Amino acid sequence: METTENLEKNLLHRRKLYKTILLDAILWILRIGFGFIFLFPLIWALSTSLKPLSEIVSAEIKLWINNPTLEHYKYVFSYRNAYRANAFIVAVINTSFLTGISMLTNLVFCTLAAYAFAKLRFKGHKALFKVFLSSMMIPGIITMVPTFVVIRVLNLWGSYWGVILPGATGVFNIFFMRQFFIGIPDELGESAALDGANELIICFRIYVPLVKPAIATMAVLCFQGGWNNFLMPYVVLPDRQLVLSTFIRTFPADNYAVSMAASMVATLPVLVLFIFFQKYFMNSITFSGIKE
After folding, report:
1. CA 108, CA 92: separation in Å to the nearest integer?
2. What residues does 86 pair with on adjacent strands?
3. Are 172 and 136 in contact (CB under 8 A)?
4. How far apart are CA 89 and CA 32, in angstroms?
């Protein structure tokens, strides 16, 4: 009798094991398949940037490279604009400056706003926060004209501030940080208040150190948004103040290899940053949705 029961248990265990292995295999196949689909544009751009023109304009479409070359990258790094300046270096400096200022303003202002919505019980804070959230449903194209009108009224056309101020804060960043502040007990701030600490000290010395992964994630998101920003620099800034996104547009439309090389160079910092902070990024995005 015991032998029969053991056989049944072993059989059941094997079936469960086979089902688990089969399910894992299917999931891995799906992951690899979707991963290849998402990576294919990046792989194609990298391949095109390393191909000579003779292979790019060939009637045969292929991903591999017969005669790889770095000439397109050399052309990008040495390209000079109409003012005889190295356009790539100018674009990197301008992009770094705008991205750094955008990150700084978002980290400070969004953190303060998120702390206020999460921990301060002022009159109408729930209704105001709902208004903030509802604004996320408004497409950016609708607010484009009013934004440009404000830039013109403030005489910021052709100035870096015309790009910085519209992106100084973000509703999503406020919502994202608020979710983390909600998860921290209010008693910590109340204890600090009893010791005489004001709200700024409570925010930056008590709560901010506890949400460092969220701040790191927001920094990555702000860096990505600022580094890839195209519309505002393209419309507001003059030609001599190119950023990397508008720098890519200066190349002829039919010169695919050079455009792809410039795109790969512009993509590299964001890609490297995301790889290093992927752990914090994924954990923070998951955690931000579990609090109401």
Report:
1. 24
2. 80
3. yes
4. 37
